[in-house]
# Entry
Amino acid sequence: MAYLLFAIYTLPVVLIVLYSFADGAAIQTGQLSLANLTADNYVRVLTQQSGLRPFIVSVVYSALAAVIAVGGLLFVARLLQKYKNWVASAFEYLLHIPWILPSALLALGLIVSYDHPNPLVAGAVLTGTTVILLIAFVTVKIPFTLRMLKASFASVNSSLEEAAAIMGAKTLYVFRRILLPLVLPAAAAITALNFNSLLDDYDTAIFLAHPLVQPLGLVIKANTDGAEGTEGIANTFVYTVLLMLITGVTMYLVYGRSGRRRARKQLPADTPGPQVPAPGPSGAKAPGEDDATRPAAAVR
# Structure
């Protein structure tokens, strides 16, 4: 059963990779052969501006939104985890509003709020610009990022902060030198998850994307509708493969490398202890040998 499920899960991935190398006629007929496989699709996407531009736009938007969301909520999550009162609870509930609203409604709210000069953004009009989609991406990821960062701070041993405070360390110094290094691995993982989830976003981008700066989700939707012909459909398969590669590399850099570093730091369980001369036949100790100076492993 496990092998059957493995085949079911991997078959779509294998077919997507194969179709990404197929020409337009093979994609239309659904017939794959070695003679129809070519690298022209990848060459077209990676060399032509029309094919590469949506991919770069999505990567830049996703990276900026992920970094801003995590970086902006690190200190906020610490305050909400430390101070438990009604003000902190009310503020935390407000930050969870994007979980309540659908993405389409959130996008319409941003359009209505910033389609005229708004004092919150120094009197600028953001609707129709490239900035409003970045604001939407950051807003959508605030609840998830806040919950994960708050849990990360809660897992830190409070005695570390108390010991630093007893030694005279200030609050910001404790946060910067003690708490922040401990939660950075979790923050990196959250950043990677946010980045991967925003790469092919469609629900928010359909309302807020700039007409000249189209992210990948809109381009994939247009290609699947057949508006770009067979080349557009082939580009979609190439985009999918590239997204899988970026997602896999990102998760490996966050989880795989950290796991290997932890494995290297762990000492083997069967590491032999220091060799100590065995006592003589009568059980007498060797000259100069004393239980107080013998290694702990030998005493045990």
